[in-house]
TrEMBL record:
Protein name: Phosphoserine aminotransferase
GN (gene name): serC
GO MF terms, alphabetically ordered: O-phospho-L-serine:2-oxoglutarate aminotransferase activity; pyridoxal phosphate binding
Annotated catalysed reactions: O-phospho-L-serine + 2-oxoglutarate = 3-phosphooxypyruvate + L-glutamate; 4-(phosphooxy)-L-threonine + 2-oxoglutarate = (R)-3-hydroxy-2-oxo-4-phosphooxybutanoate + L-glutamate
Keyword Flavoprotein: no
GO biological process, one term: pyridoxine biosynthetic process
Assigned protein family: Belongs to the class-V pyridoxal-phosphate-dependent aminotransferase family. SerC subfamily.
Location in the cell: Cytoplasm
EC number: 2.6.1.52
Species, as recorded: Acanthopleuribacter pedis
Pfam families: Aminotran_5 (PF00266)
GO cellular component terms given for this protein: cytoplasm
Length: 359
């Protein structure tokens, strides 16, 4: 067996011990004589897995008891709609910080439900920086939406804005559990699992209890947070196996020392790559220094004609999925929690060698 270093933006690299454990438990989950894939979601076997997975996430992110944890389906994309459906109640308006394609898609969904104020944007420079945020909201809104990490452009917010009583909603799809965030600064956090937490098909929602129970009467049941809170994420058949795998990822993360420890490692990994980019005239980072995230690192080759040979040679060296998103071009290295330091070191060594050969 030979495994590559996978720099995919998502679905993405898994911690190897998790894959091994899932494989070992595939046919017989802990003496139950069946796979997690075969369990009823109403069985004690599964409800124990669900409770354990939730408890681990609560510990890892220090989520207070007045927040509910939901494991839903439909991806972060469905949250783009559920957030306005459930939260736009008084002002029927959401305030959005536009830092890239995912923020724009969130706004487009919200506009179908109510009004949207774009309170800041970095669209003028292809989202390669984080815009200054206003001190106060220009118009009253039911919530403020922020994309904490911009998967395509590589920018990330570390400090959250505060707008009095207006709850902050965070799309944390691409950096949940990678650095310490204070959950109490948010009213709601959502994230697709497929980068730092598990397989696609699972969406995590962390929601303050005061934001639950306000969806309009005619809301389809699956789009109403209250339905999922009441049923403990089991109103219909939940993504059982994905929840189990997320539980294994959370267990692994606890073994690594939790979020503060993984943040330290993530900072080392990002610095290793950014140091090379900043010291080279052959490669160039696209994101302004103070606005760089730890998870997705876009970079360009000075000579675009070398993009193809770079990707080919990288793949030959076992470094895969480095092609940048079409809206930025060049390369993007996604280095989520499960990417080991050795993977980033291998990439940096390869880039130095490539520059020696082609530079
Ligand atoms: N938000 C962000 C920041 C993302 O990176 C993505 C997916 N890459 C999404 C939302 C959409 O997530 P999903 O595919 O789970 O619907």
């Amino acid at each position: 067996m030979s495994r590559v270093f996978n720099f995919s933006a998502g679905p993405s690299v898994f911690p190897e011990p998790v894959l091994e454990k899932a494989a070992a438990e595939m046919l017989d989950y802990r003496g139950q004589g069946m796979s997690v894939l075969e369990m009823s979601h109403r069985s004690k076997m599964f409800t124990d897995i669900l409770a354990d997975t939730k408890a681990r996430l609560r510990r890892l992110m220090a989520i207070p008891e007045d927040y509910h944890i939901l494991f839903l389906q439909g991806g972060a994309f469905t949250q783009f709609a559920m957030v306005p459906i459930n939260l736009m109640r008084r002002h029927r308006r959401g305030a959005y910080i536009n830092t890239g394609s995912w923020s724009k898609k969130a706004m487009a969904e919200a506009k179908k439900i109510g009004a949207v104020s774009e309170i800041a944007s970095s669209a003028d420079s292809n989202f390669n920086y984080l815009p200054d945020l206003p001190d106060a909201l220009p118009e009253p809104a039911d919530y403020v939406h922020i994309t904490t990490n911009n998967t395509i452009y590589g920018t990330a917010f570390s400090n959250m804005p505060a707008y009095g009583d207006t709850p902050l909603v965070g799309d944390m799809s691409s950096n949940i559990l990678s650095q310490v965030y204070d959950v109490t600064q948010f009213g709601l956090i959502y994230a697709g699992a497929q980068k730092n937490a598990g397989p696609s098909g699972l969406t995590m929602v962390i929601i303050h209890k005061d934001l639950v129970g306000h969806a309009p009467e005619n809301t389809p049941v699956m789009l109403d947070y209250q339905v999922h809170v009441k049923a403990d994420s089991c109103h219909n058949t939940p993504p059982c196996y994905a929840i189990y795998l997320a539980g294994l990822v959370f267990e692994w993360l606890e073994d690594q020392g939790g979020v503060p420890a993984i943040e330290t490692r993530n900072r080392k990994k990002a610095a290793l790559l950014y140091d090379l980019l900043d010291s080279s005239s052959f490669f160039r980072a696209t994101v302004a220094k103070p606005h760089r995230g730890l998870m997705n690192i876009p970079f360009l080759l000075a000579d675009e004609a070398l993009n193809k040979p770079f990707l080919t040679k990288a793949a030959e060296a076992g470094l895969v999925n480095l092609k940048g998103h079409r809206s930025v071009g060049g390369m993007r290295a996604s280095i989520y929690n499960a990417m080991p330091l050795a993977g980033v070191q291998a990439l940096v060594d390869f880039m130095k060698e490539f520059e020696r050969t082609y530079g």
